[in-house]
Specification:
With 360 residues, the protein is α/β, with parallel strands linked by helices. Helices cover 37% and strands 15% of the residues. The longest helix is centred in the N-terminal third of the chain and has 15 residues, at 79-93.
Length: 360
């Protein structure tokens, strides 16, 4: 299947950095996508194809990576700087408000955006990511919090040697089998999209890449979680070593309206492995909380992907509800739905007061 073709535009960030913005879709529901550190908007290809007629997507390449310029002040690589870029993307796309979707690193960006931008963020769909302090929350191996920051510093020093190594590895026949054998991906991976993402690493500025990773570890989004009262869908993979169960529990404890969906056998690339399950659950989330999405898209995705299991549909919740306990669901194939009679525009959430802090 052909990869999506984006409308690419240059925009200027708060500090004058040139960013490349991508636009896709013709629908009425505004969505801003925050990508993973190691990926571009291509990583969302299955979802873009399924919902492009019902959503208007906007995204961008992170500063210093892929087609965006490196900032003149290299200290401007913090999560807060990426949130400011997200706001600039919204302005350039003409979005007064929008949902924010995040994968991997994008989860941290979206969590902080929900706190910083308040009522401009209608809701959150977060996939395979943590809320902050990545070497402590996302990688929970013994000594990881002590060892990984030092390894990241070494990687910054070795950055100039990385592009030729990556260029060689991604072209070898053993590359994908090795990644699967290491448990980093599942056998149902969309190989075409994954290879397109991996090959984009060939010309990546690995010094900026690992500097951003260091800032992701410095960023603690726990307080930002306490301020979220928008509807929130959290998608996790049962085999994703980067987002262990403790991360899901932190979301559920601090953001009680969190709707958790666990993709059975999903890894860090759950969307590219089980698109039917993930997109079907996202579609129902949009239907429950926002009326601007069409039910027909989910049915089409399920028919194409032929998923093996069916997902439970949780009852709709009020956006600001903070009292009911979080729900946890296991991935099952979503049932096809009839197209909705009409597609009203997405609602704008009322401005919210910061929620009281809760213990971790």
């Amino acid at each position: 299947m052909a990869l999506p073709d984006f409308d690419r535009r240059d925009i200027e960030a708060f500090d004058g950095t040139r960013l490349e913005m991508q636009l896709y879709g013709t629908g009425s529901l505004n969505v801003v996508i925050a990508n993973g550190l190691g990926g571009t908007l291509l990583a969302w290809a299955p979802l873009l194809r399924a919902l492009g007629d019902h959503c208007r997507f906007a995204s961008w390449d992170y500063r210093g990576l892929y087609r965006s310029d490196r900032p003149a002040d290299i200290s401007h690589l913090r999560v807060e700087d990426h949130v400011a870029d997200l706001s600039a993307v919204m302005d350039a796309a003409g979005f007064d408000h929008a949902l924010v979707f995040g994968w991997s690193m994008g989860v941290q960006v979206c969590v902080q955006a929900a706190a910083d931008l308040g009522p401009r963020v209608d809701g959150l769909v977060l996939i395979n990511g943590t809320y902050g302090r990545i070497f402590e929350t996302a990688f929970q191996w013994p000594l990881s919090r002590h060892l990984l920051p030092h390894l990241n510093d070494v990687a910054i020093w070795l950055a100039p040697t990385m592009p030729p190594i990556v260029r060689f590895a991604t072209k070898q026949s053993w590359f994908l089998p090795l990644v699967e054998r290491l448990g980093l991906t599942d056998q149902r991976l969309d190989r075409e999209v994954f290879l397109a993402i991996a090959q984009g690493f060939e010309d990546l500025d690995f010094r900026v890449y690992h500097q951003i990773m260091g800032h992701l570890h410095d960023h603690d989004g726990a307080l930002a979680l306490d301020q979220i009262d928008q509807p929130l869908l959290l998608v996790a993979g049962s085999r994703d070593a980067m987002t262990p169960a403790s991360v899901r529990h932190a979301f559920e404890d601090r953001v009680p309206q969190t709707e958790t969906f666990v993709v059975r056998n999903g890894t860090h690339y759950s969307l590219l492995e089980y698109p039917g399950e993930v997109i079907g659950r996202v579609e129902r989330f949009l239907e429950d909380h926002f009326s601007g999405s069409s039910q027909a898209a989910a049915a089409a995705v399920v028919a194409q992907a032929a998923p093996e299991s069916a997902a439970k549909t949780p009852a709709a919740r009020k956006p600001a509800a903070k009292t009911p306990p979080a729900k946890r669901t296991q991935a099952k194939a979503p049932a096809a739905k009839k197209p909705a009679a009409k597609t009203p525009a997405a609602k704008t959430p009322a401005a919210k007061k910061p929620a009281a802090k809760k213990p971790a």
